[in-house]
Write a structure and sequence with these properties.
211 residues; three-stranded antiparallel sheet; 15 strands; 7% helix
């Protein structure tokens, strides 16, 4: 019963079946639980922005700059958004070379510092109009290499020889805007390092910056 639990608190790792009722009650609502440092399942959305303020504009000669709202875009999404503003503009991926291709009836200026050119793989330059241009570099549509799941009640993990609260790393397997349902194929048990539990979890980029 919930009023008959040990006063010293839970063990670092334990499992039990308890009743949520009081000892004087009819004993309903039996609950089984397991307490350890294992990630069983993660559900979230792939909403990691690859376009944000500071590098979100497309400059076309004779037109107002196209400003992209902060969000997560595939190259096709960039094309559809920009093509609504300037008819005849073509932006598409080259799946064989991992670069992007672009064509417009007017010059596109990738020289401004807030241009989305680097995301599309274009160096600061002014491609001439009415020609199909391939980007100078590979596209940088992905801003992350891995997602790191952290939980502050666990220990035993290390990153670059430093203690960490990381319990799982993975790369999203769904396109932007879709739900992520991640189930670790081989869950790892990590020791729980506290006796009273306050859970804080976050998703970090591989560089350690918070998403």
């Amino acid at each position: 019963m919930r009023d008959a639990l040990p006063h010293k608190g839970p063990w670092k790792r334990e499992s039990a079946i308890i009743n949520l009722d009081h000892t004087r009650g009819p004993a309903t609502h039996w609950v089984a639980y397991r307490k350890d440092g294992q990630l069983v399942e993660l559900q979230t959305f792939n909403a990691i922005p690859n376009i944000d303020e500071g590098r979100n504009k497309l400059y076309i000669e004779g037109e107002e700059p196209i400003v992209f709202p902060t969000g997560s875009y595939e190259i096709e999404d960039i094309h559809h958004y920009a093509e609504k503003k300037v008819k005849g503009l073509v932006i598409k991926p080259s799946n064989n070379t991992l670069r992007s291709e672009l064509k417009c009836s007017k010059p596109i200026d990738f020289r401004p510092s807030d241009s989305i050119g680097p995301l599309l793989g274009f160096t600061p330059r002014l491609p001439p109009p009415n020609r199909l241009h391939e980007s100078d570099l590979l596209v940088a549509i992905l801003k992350i290499n891995a997602l790191r799941v952290k939980c502050n009640i666990t220990g035993g993990a290390y990153i670059n020889e430093r203690r960490a609260h990381t319990i799982y790393n993975f790369f999203p397997s769904v396109p932007p805007g879709y739900k992520i349902l991640e189930v670790p194929p081989n869950p790892i048990n990590l020791p729980v390092t506290v006796t009273s539990i306050t859970i804080h979890s976050s998703h970090d980029r591989e560089s350690g910056k918070r998403l």
